[in-house]
Design brief:
eight-stranded mixed β-sheet, 32% strand, alpha+beta, GNAT_dom, globular, N-acetyltransferase
Length: 180
């Protein structure tokens, strides 16, 4: 079982015992509003995705607070050729505490070294600029708008924004940190 520790967090594979805490996160429409999981709306939907995606997946991790052992979210890569598209979500009570950037910095190493990605991308809705700020804190570069989407409830058209980090840039930054 692969596990990464930061100062405050344990990043580890999702376990069967995470079911209830992860269900609360995924079924919170505010948390998943701009993620690929916004269509998971019922406990049965969640049960299916928990069994078929979150368990036994080498690119999906739970985010646990080290002191309390509370699962507060997840972080994952979706592979597209040699690119890892990252997705993350945190319980609302964990927002604004720097957890995603902390996890992201640690997970970049995993994505490049263990999953052999050449680049890692993160996408976010222009409606959620805080995600862009987090991606910048993770050392990623702003790609700007890459697509548009329609908000089903309102019909409004919004931008899909993206950030990227290449393996070469990550290696350069890693070497610079070691040299200091």
């Amino acid at each position: 079982m692969y596990q990464i520790e930061t100062d405050r967090l344990i990043i580890r594979p999702i376990q069967a015992t995470d079911y209830n805490e992860l269900r609360e996160i995924i079924l919170d429409p505010i948390v998943v509003k701009y993620t690929r999981y916004r269509e998971v709306k019922t406990p049965d939907d969640f049960s299916d995705i928990f069994k078929n995606h979150f368990l036994n997946n080498a690119s999906t991790f739970g985010i646990e607070i080290k002191v309390s052992h509370e699962l507060i979210g997840f972080y994952e890569f979706h592979a597209e050729d040699k690119t890892g598209i990252l997705t993350y979500a945190l319980a609302q009570n964990s927002w604004g505490k720097g957890y995603v950037a902390e996890v992201g910095k640690a997970m970049m190493s995993y994505g490049f070294e263990n999953l052999n990605f050449d680049r890692i991308e993160a996408h976010y809705a222009s409606l959620n600029p805080r995600s862009g700020k987090v991606m910048a804190k993770m050392g990623m570069q702003d790609l700007g708008s890459i697509d548009t989407f329609e908000v089903p409830e309102t019909g409004e058209i919004h931008q899909v924004m993206a950030y990227v980090l290449t393996k070469d840039d990550w290696l350069i930054k890693s070497q610079q940190k070691r040299a200091i």
